[in-house]
Each structure stands twice: as C-alpha cells, then as structure tokens.
Amino acid sequence: MKVTSKYILALFLSLTLMTSCDEGFDEININKVDPTSLAPSLILNKAIIATTYLDGVSTLGMLCYNFGIVQQVITPYGSSLSGGNYNQLNNANSPLVWVNFYRNVIKQLAAVVDQTKADPLQSNIYHAARIWRAYAFMILTDTYGDVPYFEAGQGYINEIIRPKYDAQEAIYKDILKELEEASAALDPAQAAVTTDILYGGNVARWKKLGYSLMLRAGMRLSKVDPALAKTYVTKAVAGGLFESNADNSTIRHTSLYNNFIANHLAAREKTNFYLAAPFVNYLKENNDPRLPVFAVRYVGAKGGPEQTSARASSDPKVQIGMPMGYNDVTINSVLAANGVVSLWDFTQINLSTVLKLDAPEFHITYAQVQLLLAEAAVRGWVSGTAADYYAKGIRGNLEQMALYDPAATIREDAIQAYLKAHPLDNAKALEQINTQYWVATFLDGNESWANFRRSGFPALKKNPYPGSEIKEDFIRRMPYPDSEIVVNLQNVNDANARQGPNDLNTRMWWDKK
C-alpha cells in the first residue's frame, strides 16, 4: 500500500503529542498542598492537642462524669447529660475517653515512637513521645483499669487488631520505667524542635515534665505499693521537678482555636451546668480568693434567657452552689431553702476568666507538684517540710489564676492573708493537702477524680440521688465500651476475670480503701 506524505505527517504529529503529554506527568499529578506524610514532631503535637478535650463530645463526657463525681460541677438534667450527677451508667458518655485516646492519641504516639526510635537525630522527639504516651496511658488506666497497653496502637504497624488487656500493676510499672528512661535520655545538646507545641523545643522543661509526671505516677501507688512509690518519688525529685508556673504543661488557646470546655459551656450547654454546692461552700467557708475567679452567678435569673451580663456577679457573698442529689424537677423543692428563684439562679463557672474562649488548659502544674511533695514529706519520702511544700503549692495555684486573665490576678496581700489563715495542721495534713489538690486540679477532671479515689479526700458525702445505680459511695471506674465487647470479647473477659465486674463499682489495682 502506498503511504502518502499526509499519513506520515499525521503519524509524526500523533507521536509528538503523546510525548508532549507525558512530559511533566508525574509533577502535574502530585498534590503539592495535601501532604502524604507528616513530620513526627507534628504528629506528636497532634497527639498532645487530642489529649486535651479534643472536641465537644469528649468534653461532654468529662462534664457528665469526672466533674460530677468529685462534686465540682453538676447538672440537674438527665438523658444525654446523665452520669455522675445521678450515679448512673450512661453508655454514650462513659466510653468517650477510650474512643478518643485509642483512635487518636495512642495511635499517633505509636506512630511517632515507631518512626523515631532508630533515628539518633530525632531522639528528643522519641523520648518526648514516650513521656507523653506515659501521661496518656495514666489517664486511660485511671479511667478504666486494665487496658490494652503493650500491644496498643499497633494496628497499622504490626496488624494487631485485637490487643490484649494488661494488668494495671504492669502498666504502672512500665509507665514509671518509661518516664525514668525517657526523661534521663533527653539531650539538651540537640537542635531545638521549635515546632514543639508545649515548650518550643526547650528540652530542660521536657525533662521537668517527665520527672513531674513520674512524681504523680509514683504517688498514685501510695496505698497499694508504698515502697515502689517512695522509690520513684525519690528518683523524680533527684531528676528535677517543675520550679514555677513557667514550667506548667499548658495548651494555649486563641479566639480562633478555642478552649473546648469554654466553647461548650458558652454555647449549647450554657444553662445546663453549675458549680456544685460542696465546692462553692468549701471556697466560701475558707474565704478563698479563687472563688470569684472560678464563679459567676446570674442573680435572680428565672430562665436561660435571663442569664445576662447585667445579672452576672462574681461577688463571693452571693455565690450559691447547686446541691447534690436532684434532677431538674426535684430541684424545685429546695429553691427557697437555697435562696434562689430557679435552677438557673445557681452559681456557674466563670466564662470571663477560667473559661474564656482563649483560656489555657493545664495537664500538670507547679502547684500540683508542690502539693504532692507535701504529702510525700508527710510520709517521710522526701526531705524538706510538708508545711513549706504545702504553702508553695497553694501560692502556686493562687498565682496561676493570672494565667487565665490579667483581671483574675490575685493580689499579693490576699495571697499572704490566705496562707496565714490556712497553715498546715500536722494532725490533718493529708486531708488538707489533698483538699487543696482538689481545688488545684479544678477543670482537670481526670486528675481530680484519680487523686480523690487514691487519697480519699476531700471528705465528700455520697451523692444522695435516689436513682443511684452504684453500691459504693462513689463511682470508681468507667466500664469498657460496648464496642470492645463486640470486637475484642475474649480480651475483655480476661480483664474482667482478673479485675472484677465491668461496672461502675469495681476498684482498680491502686484504688485501695
């Protein structure tokens, strides 16, 4: 067949076009905006942020259980808000810590550890991730008891999709080991990781964080294993603890990146949650200068729409906490006796100070460290006087109020007056120290509840709600989520056989009478 020049030209043009289409094909089809991977330091930041009340749903779980159990914040409403207020199981709220931590925090930390453990240039990220993983697992095991630990977060890495549950004793011993090793191994000589959301790459402060968490973890074992507790408390002190509020582990917020508890209570839950009477009464009876920082009352409000700024007062004299044991109907029977006109007239958390939209949230603070040292001194585990640590702890928390807002700053004369009026009494030392710890952990429901169970203080009375579902005076743990029973039944059964019934009453290993 005769091939004309027209066909040759057409073939040449087709080949040329095909070649031209291939040129730059890979570059054009790579999304330069959406990353396919993240630096381990940024994944660690993501885990830290996720640990701090990740979203409104997790916040709701905290408000409905931890705060109500320790009688700091309460709601009279049931349905989706029920939990610690009624001493009842709410299957929607009890699994929220589990779901958030395993789906987000632990998975992310496992990825960071896996990506950095063999890279000497990223050793500080590796050890920081180990410290934060220890902190995250303290919250998980303190909430549920025996939990997946050694095999946790390994679904993507080693295809472990049904991790076994580890005994809390083994978990805590490994947490202490991890904190000791990681804190000691942090190297100040390495280049600072300036993207670090907590300390901007300041390794000295990360070391203090690791040892301060070791102190907290060691003190958690004060009743179940005093010898081991003393060993690690001593190591923590030797390693170097927080020295001021500048060392606090803090998540900072802005008008765009909000404090989630503040956002939650400023929006749909504004009229639903109130400061509990035991907390308000303690602060009032002791002339505590923190009360106006924590509290606001919309005096005379007869409904949500009447909770206006014109009615708002933080005057300590007018604060009235909501009594325990009532729902939104039965509370009406005690309004007159409490000096309020409606349930909306009780004291609430101050949305202008501790729960401003840009208010910080704290994981562990200098004040808490000093109060733990005060108890350790009472037990003879550290040098120094309990009274000195106690005073430093109270002062630290009083001064911490300024970190919420300059207007919340407590004057020096008020601090000195409060310290003078509240010296440590050796006969009541453990109660005084741990009651102050209760105040110093306000808005950190995980730590408030854990230390309340460990220490037995403050000496709260049982919530008298008539529909209580618990046999103990207080809720001791959260049950495992139903989803675990569906997908990981054998390991759940093994944990229940070892630990006890999967309910609100079962005490965990360190929670001894």
From TrEMBL:
InterPro entries in alphabetical order: SusD-like_2, TPR-like_helical_dom_sf
Pfam families hit by this protein: SusD-like_2
Source species, domain of life: Bacteria
Name assigned to this protein: SusD-like starch-binding protein associating with outer membrane
Organism: Dyadobacter beijingensis
Source organism phylogeny: Bacteria, Pseudomonadati, Bacteroidota, Cytophagia, Cytophagales
